[in-house]
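The authors assume throughout that readers already know how a fold can be written as discrete tokens. For illustration, here is how one protein appears when written out as sequence plus structure tokens.
>
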Amino acid sequence: MKKRFSILVSVLMFCLLLNPTFVQANEYQGKAEEFDQTGEKYQSASEVFRKEEVEELIEQVETKKLMPDKTDFTASDGMLRASFGQYPTRKGVILVTKDKYKGLIPTGHAAIIYGRNVVVESLSQGVTTGDNDWYSTKTTCYGATVKNTTVTQDSNAADWCYEQISKPYNFNFYNMSTRAKFYCSQLVWAAFLDNYNIDLNTPAFANATMLSNPVHPIELVWTDETNLIYEK
């Protein structure tokens, strides 16, 4: 009886493996979000954020002046602390790299610092935490802070991002209104827009046809709403 059962299980597994539908379902598991309800694939990041426009934006960011962080001044005499220009660890500071990031957005990735050693970010598997070690693991890195917020508000924005953990990755870069899923820069942008009505987006990638204005990671640095406090 046991032998007969084993043979039946083996035959069943063999049939499943030969079934193209089964193979396809496993091959594309976790990638269903890349397609809309009609089965049409969403525009890729390289189509939404065209290389030439991204490179032009990066050139403009390179001219942005390095500024002190909100905590870089002493309370007593207003003098700059020695930490000016150093890699940020303060909760609520925005991190951006222009490095190509794992095939998601071809040039760039963004995160928000949650703790000295932790960031909140959205990767292909969704919103999660990562190591706050971009100073060593990224070829390029920017640290930016929102101008018109307090340190406490920045911290609360990071908490808001943390509350989104486990939500899936948003492969529809034009869908900025959803809060059910996020791509990296959309997550950071939404934290400050929803909580403080501060829009970190720019018109750089506005698309009249799609009636949408997706936000690229580099825009979080380029916008007039943030100060650049670190650059590698």
